[in-house]
Amino acid sequence: MPFSKFVILAPISARIDGYEEPTALLTRRAADSLRAVSDDLKAQGYRLKIYDAYRPQCAVDHFMRWAADVNDTLMKPYFYPDLDKKVLFPMEYICERSGHTRGSTLDLTLFDMKTEKELDMGGTFDWFGPESHPDFCGNPDSSEFTADNHKSPANRTITPEQFQNRLVLRQAMMRHGFKPFDTEWWHFTLANEPYPDTYFTFPVKRLK
């Protein structure tokens, strides 16, 4: 399966607890569905680039500790320049539980095989703000681009092409059984995930 393998390093500036090897893990059901997504997108000229998949609870705990340390703002310019770090908990950018820990959620984007570059989505993965919302500058259900619908605190916007690029990923994921997340264009969960109430603790590494 043509997955790119990455360890999540953002928004924290160090390796996250529980990520022992650069590999992406998913439940078998989610992986099978993602294979169908991959085949679909490959026919359109794209590959999948996975930022994060299964995330152990110790990694979520690491994020919690990071968010609680309001003096650690090294990554603020890259991921939350419009926010005070103390609001990350109340605004639920950081939570005690993550769907990733159930094994059927992943963060990903598209790699354009023609240009050999990531597709331009008009925003950074793990950006905390309305610019990451799937309905930023448009309606993802009707595919309508509306540049005035941005609600960006810094008056940012995206282009029609960038909005369309997000739709290519979203629509392919939804065609093959994944649910989108309403605040992150890169985040999807298998609709019929096999472990909806289980939060796993084993580390990320190649399984034998």
List keywords for this structure.
23% helix, 16% strand, alpha+beta, 208 residues, disordered N terminus, six-stranded mixed beta sheet, globular, two-stranded antiparallel sheet
Structural description of this entry:
- By secondary structure, the chain is α+β, with helices and mostly antiparallel strands.
- The chain has helices at residues 28-43, 57-68, 76-79, 160-175; strands at residues 3-4, 46-52, 105-112, 117-118, 138-139, 144-145, 178-181, 184-190.
- Strands 1, 2, 3, 4, 7 and 8 form a six-stranded mixed sheet that branches.
- It is globular, with a radius of gyration of 17 Å.
- Mean pLDDT is 91; it is low at 1-10.
The secondary-structure class comes to alpha+beta
What is the share of helical residues? 10-25%
Radius of gyration: 17 Å
**Biggest β-sheet description:** 6 strands, mixed
Report mean pLDDT, rounded to a whole number.
Answer: 91
Choose one word for the global shape: globular
> How many β strands by DSSP?
8
Treating each run of at least 4 consecutive H or I residues as one helix, how many helices? Answer: 4
